[in-house]
Amino acid sequence: MYGYGVSLQVGLGVAIPLLDEEMARFTGVKDEDIVAPIVDYSRNYPYSEGGPLGQVNYQELKSGQITVNGKEVPTGSLSSYPKAREIAKILKDWIGTGHFLLSEPAQLLPSADSGLTFKPLIERPTQEEVV
Amino acid sequence: MATRRVVFHYPRRLIDAPVVSQIARTYNLEFNILRANITPQSEGLMVLGLEGSSEDLDKALAWVQQQGVDVQPLERNVVRNEDHCTQCGACVTICPTAALYKDSQTQQVYFDSDKCIACELCVPACPPRAMAVKF
Fold this sequence. Notes:
Chain A is an alpha+beta fold. Chain A contains four helices and four strands. Chain B is an alpha+beta fold.
């Protein structure tokens, strides 16, 4: 992919069972409540320098333009909502026709209190030895 | 400096005529042959890009036509393969004319080819390689 190198574009449809009010509340979150940082990919991201340029919510992002440092900037996406809806519908149909059933979990996914952390990549400077 | 992409149709009698090298020398043009289909005893076709001053380009193409070679401007079209397009939207912000755009409600990606200027920026930007240039 342009600027990313060799990439895989993968779409995954996951059916989330809404078994209680808490899950219904979490999954009922609106676009305007989903917030993301604006990250500078020239410095912030590759060099872990500095902080985000601001925050936006998904409603703003989906509108096609946001304001960054007073400037109007167009927004795009890298994942497909239409395809996501298509896959969601397939899952819904499977569930509706009894071809996809709720089962006991085999193993729980680690949650926020699991203590798992990301290890940052520590770059070692390369040294060229002059012979 | 201007660039022009043209299609030359050679009649049979001019197959051996060094038209391209002639205009390159006489009118000081750079040329880039994109496609050539010249067979002996038959008509010939050449698609090429020519670079030079507007004045020289005009004179060169007029001379070529005078020799009996038909000259047509090249129509370059960008086409979208609807089956390959995953509606991801990677092409949308890169398109300078908004020929590729998204419906803000459905997030569907649309391609208005009337607005397309065939800049070809969307071609490498498209992850599933759904965009292509057709001569």
